[in-house]
What we know:
Blueprint: H1 2-15, H2 26-29, H3 34-68, E1 75-82, E2 85-86, E3 89-90, E4 96-98, E5 103-111, E6 117-124, E7 127-135, E8 140-148, E9 155-162, E10 168-177
Parallel strand pairs: 4-10
Antiparallel strand pairs: 1-5, 2-3, 5-8, 6-7, 6-9, 9-10
Amino acid sequence: MKAYYGFTLALLLASGQLVAADATDEQDSMPYTPAAEQEQQQVSQDQASEGQAGEDEVNEAQAAAMEQSGFSSGSVMRSAFTTRIEDREPVDNVAQLENDTQEVYYFTELRDMEGQTARHRWEYQGEVMAEVEFDVKGPRWRVWSSKRFVPDWTGEWSVSVVNAANEVIAEDSFDYVAESKEPAAGEMENTGDMENTGDLE
């Protein structure tokens, strides 16, 4: 019986009627052994590594092209929320404002963005409320934007600095809070808390 199958196989091979499913695939023509499987796995890993290396080379090439074209992500050296700008500088730096103040400024000093545009994006409760765009005309460029507020807009406000590639390169926030009602000078509430003054020095 074995001789019959061997003879038939020999005839088919001789006549060219029996061929590999994919003659170009070396993997199919290799006999199965544990060593062969390990070798194939290593080939696959090497091919995957080469693919990753190819992607890294493309990313590096894109970054190099952007640098050659003069693009820089830029940076924000200083930033501040302020109640006023004088001589191109903020007069104060506030983290919280009461809602009796109805206009706020956001000041930024930009570096390495000459020839590009930058934006201040004002956001409140996840919604963009305003965007202000600037043409940056020097390696060190001071810009500011302002926003008028309605007293009901209490809560956290944020401003993002966005470069020409639509990347956020800085973000700051401040709290807009309800005006506190403090008693006028000379007025004192009688709460009974100060009746025993013997312990005070």
